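Chapter summary example: a protein plus cobalt (II) ion.
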Amino acid sequence: MRDEIKRLIEIDRQRTLFTHIGALLGWDQETYLPERAVEERAEQLALIQGLAHEKAVQPEIGDLLAALEEDKDLDGLELAYLRVAKREFERESKLPAELVTEMARQTSLSQASWVQARKENDFSRFAPYLQKMVDLNIEMASVLDPKGEQPYDVLLDLFEIGSTEDGIAKVFSVMREDLVRVLGKIRSRPQVDDSFLRGKVSAAAQAKMSDHFMDAIGFDRSRGRLDITAHPFTTTLGRDDIRITTRYIEDYFPSSIFSTVHEAGHALYEMGIDPHPDFRGTKLADAVSMAVHESQSRMWENLIGRSSQFWKPHYASLVGMAEGALDGIGFENFIGAINKVEPSLIRTEADEVTYGLHVILRFDLEAALISGSLSVSDLPEAWNQKMKELLGLEVPDNAQGCLQDVHWAMGAFGYFPSYALGNLYAAQFWSKMNEDLPDLGERLGAGDCAPVRGWLQRNIHKPGNSYLPGELLEKVTGKPLDASYFTRYLEEKYSRIYGF
Ligand code: CO
């Protein structure tokens, strides 16, 4: 390996250390930080992210990249690394240090304000912070692409390289039609009873369930841990330190099981990245994109975690942990209930069919916030109208409406589409995995998740950031993104459950 690449890796690893320290401060803020420590934490985060940025834009990186530009002898991984390094260097170099630190500071304050606003159902308290996050994102978009007329496209590209508002709108309009059609068929059939899932189950019992299912799918506890937060998430604090969180809702225990499995799915991805030992701690050892990340979490949560094969070996243990809530219910009724389709208010608890409609709502609204056609003060009203239009529901309060998700508070505009794209990717990967592993269902039914984990690790996790999202999809499945895999998966699964 040439000395220039070795030096790039060395600088990159220092930047990664700063990034991971920043992630640790952020994780601590969401889990254990005392209320009054928020302001200083914001300063700490601003400082550390400023230092990470300084590392990422040092002129030496530009010189090293230029020296390697003409080299014809680099191998595939080295070329992939240079591609990622160049892209990141060019992007970071456009961002002024003051903007980076201001975003880190405001994000921390805004997230703290969101937690309180959501708890107290008080949008007006959060609105000035949200305004600040919108303004900072518009500013960031204009700095990254000074000639760009579509700031939202610039933001989308940060989460899914190459994606645009128009492109996503096209995919979503087909998806919306398909979802509404499947929903219509389901609604025409007798509905499933899931009332027994709403019996009281203590947080302690749910913690046991979370532990059980983390182990079942193969979360490596020597390389991570689970904690409790207002909004479940996964964060990487080090190559061998992947933190996940969940929340315990006492009158709906499945929520924590599926949140934990979802986040553990993200964690398995992070734990499995290893394009080559030489590139550990570099940008090549990052995930490909947020949508591919979501394909992993949602595959474990839904395609695997809500299947009857997966539950066969675990149902009896669940009944034992459920403090009587499942006594006398029976396996088939349970499977029906955890797959119940019904329009509801909360995205993270939505079924697989209506979930995409929640994402379309957020996509439309955040595009409007960034383009300026929707003002922050009109957001609650616009949210409630869209909810009526897409899901036919009245929103009783903002805590169950526009305050439910943390993403905008974190300044993550352009993130939401990843969730729906993740479903599409997941279904396409799943189809290929089932082709490659014909006894997959049998193995899951015997409580053995290792074949699934192995396939995902080899094909999707290991390469890290060596490919663009579309390249990875083609390499693994042989085809570009095709939304019909997801529709077929839904049709097949729900025709079985609802008998249409
Ligand atoms: Co996720």
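Key point: The beta strands are 224-228, 234-238, 241-246.
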